[in-house]
Amino acid sequence: MQSTRPGTTRSHSANASRRYSGLKASDLSGVNKENTEVEKRGGYNAATGQMEGAPPKRLSGDKRTSSHPDTPTADQPQDQKRSKKVYTPHQSREHGHYHVVLGESLQGTPEKHRWKILDLIGEGTFAKVVEVWDRKRKVYVAVKLVRAVEKYVRDAKFEINMLHKIREDDVQDFYPTIKYRSYFFAESNAGEHMCIVFPKLGFCLLDYLTRCATFKMHEVAHIAWQMGAALNYLHAHLRLIHTDLKPENILLEKPCEVIDKVGNRTYNLPACTRIRIIDFGGATDERHSKHSIVSTRHYRAPEVILSQGWMFGADMWSTGCILLELHTGRLLFDTHDNREHLAMMEKVLGRMPSFYPDACTGQQAQPFFDRHGRLDTAWLAGSDADALKSKAKINRLVALTNMPLDADFIDLISRLLDFNKTTRLRAHEVMYHPFVWKNYPESRRENEAREQYEQQCFKEILGGPSSRTRVVEPAYDRRGGYSSASVRP
Prior knowledge:
Mean pLDDT: 78
Strand content: 5-15%
Helix content: 25-40%
CATH topology of the largest domain: Transferase(Phosphotransferase), domain 1
CATH superfamily of the largest domain: Transferase(Phosphotransferase) domain 1
Shape: globular
Low-confidence stretches: 6-44, 46-51, 53-71, 460-489
Number of helices: 13
């Protein structure tokens, strides 16, 4: 069944923190019309899907029958070299972005001809992600080209530190988090770009939803178990909060399988539902500002909106929104306004707790409640266009308990979307939830394997000396240099 998202709009400003291949896949069918030299020599025609101006095939007798400008003729010297064709995908030309040219090597790198650009996977405000052929190791990788702007480079250095900590702590790659391979600098006309190398993975979950179909219950259960294991690793052991969980930042490990069935219909199915959580540029520890705004709008917890102070529960709220979206194919809270967002929460999850108004510490949160301590919805009675549109959108929502879904699945989502952040389901509890055990029976065996792995590697669980107390050398030190321990050949 093809999944659609009618009426779904996503804020590009809110998605500025998308920093990896969780970004939406770019449309590579276009050609840079400003590149007149390419047009003269011929390039890719999106309308016909053919290469225009390409050299013709050789005929019998090895004779050429074309006067193509790249083809030597009788009047031209035979040793004249062909001019190299350049194919430029449609991409952002904002200041600081690396200009991607397909078929070229990354310029200004320590190893000049090692990285060949094959495809533009995605782009955003922060960076571009390209598929690259590593000529040295003979493998396909994904390279994140950070925009040459000071604040973005600073954030990229922080992300490298987080990725290095995760990689060095999870040596056996047991948990489904992304593990970077290396990084280097590339010079271009825009400046110096930091390049982070990752393994080449499959679709992000959002791309799979929009291109293929929704996930079945057993697939959602498998993804839920993996997210619980990954977040338990981040929360309980590393004491890190991801802060930006969304379908764009969760990738399938392998590409989809195309299956042809009777009736000339093609189905795209995931080769497996093993995932990787990416984009740790916004990750933080327990020492963060209580009033800072984190998470993409649609997956933002109420305590973040109301400045009540957020911790690990913010990630669990995002997890509940994601799991429900994977099965239904629709955003649970499709909005860009705080008042509308809170009203949607009450319509789906019921009335907010009575202590909510007193728990708000920010002055901007007080106007959301009336003098009786209830969420103020008087603005929905207005006759202006915004109020009428919001009212219609809220009325279309269905309470979670009335949704035609599995009872255990509804229980899992309702406990993840608990208004009380102290009683909200924790990451390790997701792995043992009845919904996961029923729809993903292998979770029992994998829970035992995980417990044995943690007892073997992280002895602090048993009260013994901990391997996590070792000092991990940072990937980027304060003197502005990179530690050799973080670079793999």
